[in-house]
């Protein structure tokens, strides 16, 4: 019992703090990175979608249209991820990061092209009125293919392209950076 209230006191939990606080301490940086990655990805996805749709509306072959739209969107995503999502990480040279980034984007593009190819050319040969349509192509390339490729890209960028620094990112401070020494 506590001396002041007469109620039994609860012993402190090992590690201290609430479950939510421990979760934030352990995974907060990852959730923060995923949020930034998702924001950059949403912008790149919109660019990809607009360009892909414009190209197929102008009768560009489906796999070619997806390749062109992905290369443009990936360039935009590289800039956003390098200078915003993972700006707190150590830098290697730009050529290395860019090369790895586009290698992993090529793998992600391959995943999206495989999904689109299976849908449009495989299933479209069996059920052309369903799978060889603009809407089926948009769903397979832009939703299913992009989602599968994005999971792979997040893991590979985080692991190989924008490498983690030995020290965690600095905590936010209410003082201006110029006052800290």
Report on this model:
- With 181 residues, the chain is mainly alpha-helical.
- It contains five helices and no strands.
- The chain has helices at residues 19-57, 62-85, 94-126, 128-131, 134-161.
- Helix 3 (94-126) packs antiparallel against helix 5 (134-161).
- The radius of gyration is 23 Å and the shape is elongated.
- The model has no long low-confidence stretch (mean pLDDT 79).
Largest β sheet strand count, sense and barrel closure: none
> Element order, helices and strands?
HHHHH
Q: Count of DSSP E strands?
A: 0
Classify the helix fraction into a percent range.
over 70%
User: Could you tell me the mean pLDDT?
Assistant: 79
Strand content: under 5%
Q: By helix and strand content, what is the structural category?
A: mainly alpha
Quick one: overall form? Answer: elongated
Number of helices: 5
How large, in whole angstroms, is the Cα Rg? 23 Å
Provide tags for this entry.
181 residues, mainly alpha, 0% strand
What's the gist of this structure?
With 181 residues, this protein is mainly α.
Record the SSE blueprint.
Layout: H1 19-57, H2 62-85, H3 94-126, H4 128-131, H5 134-161
Helix pairs in contact: 1-2, 1-5, 2-3, 3-5
């Amino acid at each position: 019992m506590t001396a002041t209230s007469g109620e039994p006191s609860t012993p402190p939990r090992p590690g201290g703090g609430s479950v939510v606080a421990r979760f934030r301490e352990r995974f907060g940086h990852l959730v923060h990175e995923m949020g930034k990655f998702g924001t950059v990805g949403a912008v790149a996805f919109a660019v990809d979608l607009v360009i892909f749709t414009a190209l197929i509306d102008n009768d560009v072959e489906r796999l070619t249209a997806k390749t062109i739209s992905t290369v443009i969107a990936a360039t935009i995503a590289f800039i956003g991820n390098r200078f915003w999502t993972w700006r707190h990480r150590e830098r290697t040279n730009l050529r290395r990061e860019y090369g790895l980034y586009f290698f992993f984007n090529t793998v992600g593009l391959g995943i999206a092209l495989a999904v689109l190819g299976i849908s449009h050319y495989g299933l479209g040969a069996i059920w052309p009125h369903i799978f060889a349509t603009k809407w089926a192509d948009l769903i397979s390339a832009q939703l299913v293919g992009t989602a599968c490729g994005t999971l792979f890209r997040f893991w590979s960028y985080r692991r190989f392209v924008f490498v983690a620094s030995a020290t965690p990112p600095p905590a936010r401070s209410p003082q201006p950076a110029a006052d800290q020494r």
